[in-house]
């Protein structure tokens, strides 16, 4: 059913990620989806994963929706659907390093030592360039929106965030292993994501697919951590095809 809303959940760790995320981060891909369906882009501010899950759940209406979450938003979407599967038709977790297994790998230094002052226009441009395969999508409109986000919602770091992240991941993995992930889900990953390896994306998919037959994995070529901005048409095609398949079930 094409009238089922698609809800977008942005990524970004509160007070940590050097660029200020929000609904603006989705860019032109929202327009592509809005031509077909009702689109809602939530602006999450909770300082823990559980707080963001509750924030998103409160914002949703009673109708079932499709969730599309980027990075931390992907984990929030996966956790919300596991908690309330009757309200979620599908989940698309996009470049969700936050949800993917990390193992004992070396700490990722891609976003280490951003230029000061943190969350300034220059600092955010640096961060967006570092996580992207191509810089062409980083324009004045994006940087203006990131600056506004920093002014309107000054980033606040919480010591409770990391424990909440680990607890949310543990619950997600337990759900996948024990009773199986309850709704159709796909993982979308950029082939050149500097924040998370391709294997991390595949392992997240394998966990979900253990007991969920309607699970898919898609790679977006020549894209980093923001595949929906770098390759919006390809991203739209991948997600739209998945949503159509789910809606026909």
Approximate shape: globular
User: How many strand segments?
Assistant: 6
The SSE string, one letter per element, is EHEHEHEHHHEHEHH
The quaternary state of the protein chains shown equals single chain
Q: How many structurally independent domains?
A: 1
- Fraction of residues in H or I helices: 40-55%
CATH architecture: 3-Layer(aba) Sandwich
Major sheet, described briefly? 6 strands, parallel
Helical stretch tally: 9
Assigned CATH superfamily: Alpha/Beta hydrolase fold, catalytic domain
- Pick out the low-confidence regions: none
CATH topology: Rossmann fold
Mean pLDDT: 95
CATH class: Alpha Beta
Q: Strand sequence of the main sheet, in spatial order?
A: 2-1-3-4-5-6
Strand content: 5-15%
**Helix- and strand-based class?**
alpha/beta
Q: Gyration radius, to the nearest Å?
A: 17 Å
Termini separation (Å)?
A: 10 Å
What does this structure look like?
With 249 residues, the chain is of the alpha/beta class. The chain has a single domain (6-247), classed as Rossmann fold (3-Layer(aba) Sandwich), CATH 3.40.50. 41% of the residues lie in helices and 13% in strands. It has nine helices and six strands. It has a six-stranded parallel sheet, with helices on both faces. Helix 2 (49-59) packs across helix 3. The protein is globular. 43% of the residues are buried. The model has no long low-confidence stretch (mean pLDDT 95).
